[in-house]
Amino acid sequence: VNMNQTLEQYAEQVIDWYKASYIANPIQIIDRITLTTLSGKPAYNYSFIQRGGPPDSSMLRTLEVGTMVGNDVFYIQYLADEYGYLRNLPTVQKMLDSIEFDETIS
Question: Which helix (H) or strand (E) holds 86?
Fold first, then answer.
């Protein structure tokens, strides 16, 4: 992690990595990077969809939320098919809201 990067710059770098890594099944960004919080810390948030490879060509949607704590990056991903993603998103959001980092552990 380049500590001189902003969260938004780091998230853009991660998206570029995903795009380069999934050439056979390209990703499509659905929700651009937004700044939010995770455990009270500044965080990034974005989502993308990707078509599964043969024989399964279903659409999978991923949400990633991440933050920097010291020299570390912590991120959480939620992945589901489109129907399950939307159905379970309120529960996932409650789980994200409940996360707390124990900063006494290093």
Answer: helix 82-98
Q: pLDDT digits over 34-70, tens only?
A: 889 998 899 999 998 887 655 566 788 999 999 988 7
CB of 38 closer than 8 Å to CB of 44 = no
Helix (H) or strand (E) holding 49: strand 41-51
pTM value? 0.81
Residue found under tokens 């969260």? 7
Q: Are 76 and 65 in contact (CB under 8 A)?
A: yes
What whole-number distance in Å separates Cα of residue 37 and Cα of residue 68?
11
Instruction: Tell me which long-range contacts 54-62 makes (C-beta under 8 A, separation of at least 24).
Output: 58/82, 61/30, 61/85
Indicate the pLDDT class of residue 72, thresholds 50, 70 and 90.
confident
What's the token pair of residue 20?
Answer: 């380069």
Q: CA of 62: how far to CAs of 29, 50, 92, in Å?
A: 10, 8, 12
